């Protein structure tokens, strides 16, 4: 019996031009977002491939030109990057805000790591349309438009009683209608995503999680709409109320929360880190060698016996003062990062008042395109730089004869690997 | 006639004053507008103050440096901080998405670092509590909620015919309702306009302030006209409301993002790192400015030797290493600028694709107009980058000139012989007064206005089309 009801109500719904039109627009938006998201991910991958090639050539070139370890260390750049995850096409996240690629060398890292080679700022400000945006922001609007006059329109058209009388079960009629609408909407929104996920070989568990999360989110919105649609108000008043709730939770609460968080935490300015680091590095030229070396040995006691200078300029001293420059800036830099992290955590609390933000954060976390992923990448760069120092310090301090073969053991940057 | 229009408008306001819904949304919108002006004003002013302070600190540090080899100072470098323009206090535009500090040094064009957005809580991924957002996105919604029924209500209640009999023409009624609706829009615009007037004290020009306020008034005018049109054409207030909400979602939320995606997909712009590699490739062919023996500088050497009629570089009256540094910096900068210009042009090309969508969406048009007039758009940011490059080149070259003329070749090549020679290979700290005071100002007001004309035209055309629609629909009644 239930199938007959579903069929009947589904038929009624799709006969309505407005419903069909809304469902088609939802499908169109979802297709567009998945398609352009895939294009963006493909462009990022192509960029990485080109960069890798140029990077290898460049480093090989430097190695041929230089005749001492210090020279190689000074002139060699190393590409670091975070490739997009398989799921990135659906949630592009903050990858246009945070850098995901750098060229790093042995100099003080604090002077290099804040370089951000990101895209067009005007476009970043306008924002992108991706699957995450379609689901978290637009899907509720579709649901509101489809459900708010669920009963009000039938009341206004005088069909309310007729429908109730002819339905198989009176109680099940409205939930059934609402259910069919939400199921159809979920279907048209998720279908392009499933295609995209298949094309990008997204792991099954992620596809299942995204699907589940999206359906739960839409069901929640639908429940709210269904509940409100039962109130005895004219349709525009119901819709105004629903849209008001949507606007408040999606746009206004996050914007207010953002301001509140920005004003509640004080931290060092980025400019301060740069200035402190620069003074420390450049001031070293005028300081006695022992000053730099003493500071250096504090963190690298292993080289305490190798700090004697045999000439007025030696690479080991040069790189030692770069190390010291980072050490001097480290507390500021650490605090700066902690503040950034804390802000994102506090935003997580505000997100509980904003389902759309919560969903966006969930999806970008799954896709590893959020601020957390960006900070993990930054940490990876820091670790890699540390490895480079470990590789070069023995060569600089003990000065073995120069062999190019030694560089076969030079660390190479290993990008994050995503689970398949 | 005027009196009647006024009466109609007044009557509409009486209706709104009795409606909880209308009063609530109007109150919320006005409060948000005031809050956004206060908050954004103070945030941006604080940022402006901090950056100006860092700027003077950077300049002071530079001149305080001890006696040094000039090339040390080329690498010591200099920092520039971008201060927001006065009207940026109302529309911060791309400010948060661009770096605020840039490090200037020899041989390299660094990118700007530390964008505000990277260090934010990230909750503003959809909206920021800025006057620009309140005016561009929320005000249309306010007008929709207040006005979707202005015409349909009269029809549904049957009062429309009474009015007609009393000699109120449909057009007059529409105009009256339009005046009432515009009143609501301007109620939200007032705090923003006041904020704009205050920026006059921070150095904005009368032209940009008036054009800024005018563009928003035009935008409000567009939405009033659209609400009237849809309300006039709709058979029921349900239909009117749904249609307006759909138009709002499409033009204010969806199209700006579709414009971005389209721009990125249609115009390819390689990343800065890729450009850096291309520059490197080019430079390898040109010679290393640190190495005066590089064969690439042989012609330069021969010319100099011939010019001064001497046999070796030691006999030259100038320091050959300094000459090489000057020459290679100039050549290098040409290459760097070529690539940088190309990259900036690609950025503008992308933005232009997105801005064309302003013919479809007034929200995009007002965004462009507002950012351009405020001086917070992409082009003004690029102006900062260009100015920074000019500062970089000037100070590096004046240090290189000092290198060539203030330090002998013999002292220079023998600097690492002993502590004494190292001391000799330095120039006095008095020479570090090579920086000029830097304070970033956006394009002149007239040019900013000229840049915003296309967007203003988009707004005007959209307003005109809809207004003609209103008049035609009014006649048909």
Fold and architecture overview:
The complex is a heterodimer of chains A (420) and B (477). Chain A is mostly helical and 420 residues long. Chain A has helices at 2-15, 17-65, 69-75, 121-126, 131-147, 152-157, 160-166, 170-199, 204-229, 235-264, 270-283, 289-299, 315-351, 355-366, 371-398; strands spanning 78-81, 101-104. Helix content of chain B is 70%, strand content 4%. Chain B has helices at residues 2-18, 20-63, 70-76, 131-147, 150-157, 159-165, 170-198, 206-233, 237-266, 272-284, 298-308, 320-356, 362-374, 378-405, 409-413, 419-424, 445-476; strands at 78-81, 99-105, 108-115. In chain B, strand 2 and strand 3 form a beta hairpin. The two termini of chain B are 19 Å apart. Chains A and B meet through helix 2, strand 2, helix 4, helix 5 and helix 6 of A and helix 2, helix 3, strand 2, strand 3 and helix 4 of B.
* Order of H and E elements of chain A: HHHEEHHHHHHHHHHHH
Q: What is the terminal-to-terminal distance of chain B?
A: 19 Å
Strand residue percentage of chain B? under 5%
Overall spatial form of chain A: elongated
Gap from first CA to last CA of chain A? 43 Å
Q: Strands across the major sheet of chain B, in which order?
A: 1-2-3
Into which percent range does the helicity of residues of chain A fall?
over 70%
Largest sheet of chain B: 3 strands, antiparallel
Overall body shape of chain B: elongated
Strand order of the largest sheet of chain A: 1-2
Structural class of the secondary elements of chain B? mainly alpha
**Greatest contact between two chains:** A-B, 98 and 101 residues
**What Rg of chain B is obtained from the alpha carbons, in whole angstroms?**
30 Å
Question: What quaternary form is this?
Answer: heterodimer
Written as H for each helix and E for each strand, in order along the chain, the element string of chain B is: HHHEEEHHHHHHHHHHHHHH
The stretches of 5 or more residues of chain B where confidence is low (pLDDT under 50) are none
Question: Which class of secondary structure composition applies to the elements of chain A?
Answer: mainly alpha
């Amino acid at each position: 019996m239930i199938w007959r009801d579903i069929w009947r109500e589904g038929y009624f719904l799709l006969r309505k031009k407005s419903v069909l039109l809304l469902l088609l627009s939802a499908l169109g938006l979802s297709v567009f977002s998945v398609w352009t998201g895939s294009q963006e991910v493909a462009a990022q991958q192509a960029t990485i491939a080109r960069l890798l090639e140029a990077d290898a050539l460049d480093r090989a070139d430097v190695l041929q030109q230089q005749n001492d370890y210090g020279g190689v260390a000074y002139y060699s750049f190393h590409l670091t990057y975070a490739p997009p995850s398989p799921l990135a096409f659906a949630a592009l996240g903050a990858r246009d805000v945070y850098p995901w690629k750098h060229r790093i060398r042995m100099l003080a890292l604090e002077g290099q790591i804040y370089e951000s080679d990101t895209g067009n700022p005007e476009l970043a400000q306008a924002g992108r349309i991706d699957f995450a945006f379609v689901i978290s922001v637009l899907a509720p609007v579709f649901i509101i438009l489809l459900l708010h006059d669920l009963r009000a329109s039938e009341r206004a058209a005088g069909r309310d009683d007729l429908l109730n009388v002819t339905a198989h079960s009176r109680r099940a009629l409205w939930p059934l209608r609402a259910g069919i609408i939400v199921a159809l909407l979920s279907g048209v929104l998720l279908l392009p995503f499933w295609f995209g996920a298949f094309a990008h070989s997204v792991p099954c568990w992620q596809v299942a999680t995204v699907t589940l999360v999206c359906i739960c989110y839409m069901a929640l919105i639908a429940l709210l709409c269904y509940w409100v649609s039962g109130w005895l108000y004219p349709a525009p008043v119901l819709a105004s109320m629903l849209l008001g709730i949507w606007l408040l939770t999606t746009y206004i609460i996050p914007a207010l929360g953002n301001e509140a968080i920005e004003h509640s935490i004080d931290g060092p300015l980025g400019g301060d880190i740069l200035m402190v680091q620069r003074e420390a590095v450049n001031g070293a030229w005028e300081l006695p060698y022992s000053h730099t070396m003493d500071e250096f040995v504090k963190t690298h006691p292993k080289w305490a016996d190798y700090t004697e200078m045999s000439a007025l300029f030696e690479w080991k001293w040069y790189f030692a003062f770069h190390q010291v420059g980072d050490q001097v800036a480290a507390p500021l830099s650490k605090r700066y990062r902690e503040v950034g992290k804390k802000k994102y955590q506090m935003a997580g609390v505000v997100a509980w008042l904003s389902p759309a933000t919560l969903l966006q954060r969930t999806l970008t976390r799954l896709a590893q395109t959020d601020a957390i992923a960006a900070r993990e990448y930054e940490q990876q760069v820091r670790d890699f730089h540390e490895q480079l120092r470990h590789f070069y310090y023995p060569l600089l301090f003990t000065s073995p004869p120069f062999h190019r073969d030694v560089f076969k053991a030079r660390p190479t940057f290993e990008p994050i690997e995503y689970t398949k | 006639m005027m009196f009647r229009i006024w009466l109609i408008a007044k009557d509409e306001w009486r209706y709104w004053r009795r409606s909880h819904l209308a009063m609530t949304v109007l109150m919320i919108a006005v409060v948000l507008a005031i809050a956004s002006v206060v908050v954004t004003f103070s945030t941006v002013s604080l940022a402006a103050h901090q950056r100006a302070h860092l700027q003077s600190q950077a300049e002071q540090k530079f001149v305080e440096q001890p006696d040094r080899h000039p090339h040390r100072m080329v690498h010591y470098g200099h920092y520039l901080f971008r201060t927001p323009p006065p009207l940026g206090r109302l529309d911060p535009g791309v400010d948060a998405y661009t770096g605020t500090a840039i490090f200037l040094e020899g041989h390299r064009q660094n990118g700007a670092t530390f964008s505000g957005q990277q260090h934010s809580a990230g909750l503003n991924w959809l909206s920021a509590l800025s006057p620009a957002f309140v005016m561009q996105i929320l005000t249309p919604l306010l007008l929709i909620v207040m006005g979707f029924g202005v015409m349909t209500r009269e029809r549904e209640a049957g009062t429309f015919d009474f009015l007609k009999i009393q000699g109120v023409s449909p057009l007059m009624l529409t105009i009256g309702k339009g005046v009432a609706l515009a009143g609501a829009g301007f109620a939200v615009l007032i705090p923003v306009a006041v904020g704009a007037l205050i920026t006059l004290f921070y150095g904005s020009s009368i032209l940009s302030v008036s054009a800024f306020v005018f563009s928003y008034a035009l935008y409000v005018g567009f939405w009033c006209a659209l609400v009237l049109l849809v309300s006039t054409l709709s058979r029921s207030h349900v239909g009117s409301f749904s249609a307006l909400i759909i138009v709002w979602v499409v033009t204010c939320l969806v199209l700006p993002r579709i414009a971005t995606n389209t721009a990125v997909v249609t115009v390819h712009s390689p990343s800065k790192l890729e450009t850096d590699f291309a520059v490197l490739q080019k430079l390898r062919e040109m010679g290393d400015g640190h190495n005066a023996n590089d064969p690439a500088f042989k012609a330069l050497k021969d010319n100099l030797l011939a010019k001064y009629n001497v046999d070796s570089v030691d006999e030259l009256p100038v320091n050959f290493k300094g000459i090489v540094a000057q020459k290679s910096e100039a050549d290098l900068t040409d290459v760097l600028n070529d690539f940088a210009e190309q990259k900036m042009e690609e950025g503008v090309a992308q933005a232009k694709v997105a801005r064309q969508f302003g013919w479809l969406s007034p929200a995009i048009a007002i965004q462009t107009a507002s950012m351009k007039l405020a001086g917070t758009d992409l082009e003004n940011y690029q102006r900062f980058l260009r100015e920074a490059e000019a500062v970089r080149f000037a100070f590096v070259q004046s240090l290189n000139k000092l290198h060539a003329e203030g330090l002998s070749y013999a002292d220079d090549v023998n600097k690492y012989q002993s502590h004494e020679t190292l001391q000799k290979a330095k120039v006095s700290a008095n020479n570090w007064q090579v920086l000029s005071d830097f304070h970033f100002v956006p394009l002149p007001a007239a040019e900013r206005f000229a840049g915003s004309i296309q967007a203003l035209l988009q707004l005007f055309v959209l307003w005109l089309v809809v207004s003609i629609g209103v008049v035609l629909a009014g006649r048909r009644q």
